[in-house]
Amino acid sequence: MARQFHPADELLAPAGLGRRLLAMLYDGLICIAVLIVCTWGYTMLAAWIIGFDKYKTLAESGALNSDPLLTSILFVLLFIFFGYFWTRTGQTLGMQVWRIRIENANGTSIRWPQALFRFLSGWVSWFAAGLGYIWMLWDSDKRTWTDHFSESRVVRVPKEP
Question: Which one-letter DSSP state was computed for residue 101?
Fold first, then answer.
């Protein structure tokens, strides 16, 4: 069920590029910590299952340098992290700090399919040398590729009185 953040007729100002990038930096640091902890847990579990000595030998030989299962787990974990915050409160921890929020045009929270489109198009936006985010400088509605693909928008959250 979608959460109503504000009345549909109340339009909030779009978030600027600077705020978005600062929130991404803040969230990026949190994600690094989450990925390190998850990778450590995965490594400990894998070593326990196959034996610590054998795991150490595999690691030293370079046989564990690319692990598609770990990569997939980390990718899904990141999506769950962002999707959870975006669909519940519209804000990750970094977005809360910089007072920005993702919402639909009618002021409601986005749904999981939208979060998936937003997450995947975010990767595309970065791999295109950041063009997907810089795009908002030319867009009349100040929307990025992720906003367009997920049919949502990022707005500035006003200070509470």
Answer: E
